């Protein structure tokens, strides 16, 4: 709450000033606030009453952010000011800011439950009103973890527990996202079916908790609905995919305890949680998944891509090293196109990853077998990755001269004017 100014609240003085200079009532400061806004911010109900007695229009004047006096009073939780505004200017009760935030939402935002109760009593429809994102007061309470406000809102509008905002996010999804476990408990008590409600992308609240690593919420959701531990969203991702891809090891353990089969569950694109962990470079997750299901190292996504290919693609050198230590036989595994992890790292210019693969003994072989190439050196040369090409040439001096069905790395460097690569070859 804002501190009161040293000299404020003199309603009689305000009346005298308005009589002497009526235009002062509409004067604004740099933020567009009138005297009525300032009185509302500081909780000066007598001054607000004096100003409204002079002109009720002041209740409907917005500042530069589009807020009315009732909005700023709600943010600060000033009950007596709200009582004056509700009594003298009821037309402002349901008014919203340009972003669709009404007074009840703003009171909820800062956890002012008494202010919220007063506003809903004056205008019950506020409990179900939505902002520009179609969020209700209940979603605001869930997002902020304001449980006293949430209890009140669930009493007056129990259906709001599963009311979807934009993208299908409900208050239950929001509580799970923010890790507000007590708020989540209240919402699930009001709407147990909310554990299975999907967003527009097919995500359950368990997916959201896994994505954000809110482990306590995830435990609660799985205890309430065990099947959600293995549910798939529109991309075929389970909560385990999300936890693995974002490195949430504790959440991953919860999910693997509840649904161990999700360790090798494949999404629409064929990727497993291990593919996701490898791509993002989450070593502890990689090691945990492989220790639980060693064969997951050999599960291939579309195009026959392995977790090693994914790690190489994103330049996750530590993950590459970890994967090779766990399954060295995957070093030269080829995709449908005949490309190895070395090809993929070379075309992306991931020098450290290329170096690690070469140290492990990666073979420089042609990709796209039907075309007898390109070789890793060709790919590096085409993209102008001079340092990567240098590493490949140091490991195999003849790499620059080998030809695919079209040309050698030298030809590619010349035609594509990759002069920095030409210097490496010569």
Characteristics:
repeat, Ankyrin_rpt, single chain, 25 helices, 426 residues, Ankyrin_rpt-contain_sf, mainly alpha, ANK repeat, Serine Threonine Protein Phosphatase 5, Tetratricopeptide repeat
How would you summarize the topology of this molecule?
Blueprint: H1 11-20, H2 35-41, H3 45-54, H4 69-76, H5 79-88, H6 103-109, H7 113-122, H8 137-144, H9 147-156, H10 171-178, H11 181-190, H12 205-212, H13 215-224, H14 239-245, H15 249-258, H16 273-280, H17 283-292, H18 307-313, H19 317-326, H20 341-348, H21 351-359, H22 376-383, H23 386-395, H24 409-415, H25 419-425
Helix pairs in contact: 1-3, 2-3, 2-4, 3-5, 4-5, 4-6, 5-7, 6-7, 6-8, 8-9, 8-10, 9-11, 10-11, 10-12, 11-13, 12-13, 12-14, 13-15, 14-15, 14-16, 16-17, 16-18, 17-19, 18-19, 18-20, 19-21, 20-21, 20-22, 21-23, 22-23, 22-24, 23-25, 24-25
Topology-level CATH name of the domain at 1-119: Serine Threonine Protein Phosphatase 5, Tetratricopeptide repeat
Mean pLDDT across residues: 90
CATH homologous superfamily descriptor of the domain at 1-119: Ankyrin repeat-containing domain
Number of helices: 25
Order of helices and strands: HHHHHHHHHHHHHHHHHHHHHHHHH
CATH class of the domain at 1-119: Mainly Alpha
């Amino acid at each position: 709450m804002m501190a009161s100014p040293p000299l404020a609240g003199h309603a009689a003085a305000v009346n005298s000033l308005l009589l002497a200079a009526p235009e002062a009532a509409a004067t604004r400061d740099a933020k567009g606030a009138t005297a009525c806004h300032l009185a509302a911010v500081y909780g000066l109900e007598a001054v607000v009453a004096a100003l409204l007695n002079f002109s009720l229009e002041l209740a409907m004047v917005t500042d530069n952010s589009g807020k009315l006096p009732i909005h700023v009073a709600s943010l600060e939780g000033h009950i007596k000011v709200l009582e004056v505004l509700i009594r003298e200017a009821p037309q402002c009760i349901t008014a919203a800011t340009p972003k669709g935030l009404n007074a009840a939402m703003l009171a909820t935002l800062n956890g002012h439950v008494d202010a919220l109760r007063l506003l809903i009593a004056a205008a019950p429809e506020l409990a179900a009103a939505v902002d520009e994102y179609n969020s209700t007061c209940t979603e605001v309470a869930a997002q902020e973890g304001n449980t006293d406000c949430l209890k009140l809102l669930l009493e007056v509008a129990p259906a709001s527990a599963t009311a979807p905002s934009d993208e299908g996010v409900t208050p239950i999804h929001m509580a799970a996202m923010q890790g507000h476990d007590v708020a989540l408990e209240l919402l699930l008590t009001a709407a147990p079916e909310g554990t299975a409600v999907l967003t527009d992308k097919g995500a359950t609240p368990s997916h959201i908790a896994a994505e954000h690593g809110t482990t306590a919420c995830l435990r609660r959701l799985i205890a309430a609905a065990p099947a959600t531990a293995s549910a798939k969203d529109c991309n075929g991702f389970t909560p385990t995919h999300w936890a693995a891809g974002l490195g949430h090891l504790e959440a991953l353990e919860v999910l693997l305890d509840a649904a161990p089969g999700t360790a090798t569950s494949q999404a629409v694109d064929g990727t497993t949680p291990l593919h996701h962990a490898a791509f993002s470079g989450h070593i502890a997750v990689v090691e945990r998944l492989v220790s639980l299901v060693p064969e997951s190292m050999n599960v291939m996504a579309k195009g026959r891509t392995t977790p090693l290919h994914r790690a190489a693609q994103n330049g996750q050198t530590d993950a590459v090293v970890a994967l090779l230590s766990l399954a060295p036989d995957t070093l030269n595994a080829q995709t449908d196109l005949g490309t190895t992890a070395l090809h993929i790292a070379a075309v992306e210019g991931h020098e450290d990853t290329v170096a690690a693969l070469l140290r492990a003994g990666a073979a420089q072989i042609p990709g796209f077998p039907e075309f007898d190439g390109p070789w890793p050196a060709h790919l590096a040369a085409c993209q102008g990755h001079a340092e990567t090409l240098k590493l490949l040439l140091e490991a195999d001096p003849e790499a620059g001269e080998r030809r695919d069905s079209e040309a050698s790395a030298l030809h590619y460097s010349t035609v594509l004017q990759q002069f920095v690569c030409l210097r490496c070859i010569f």
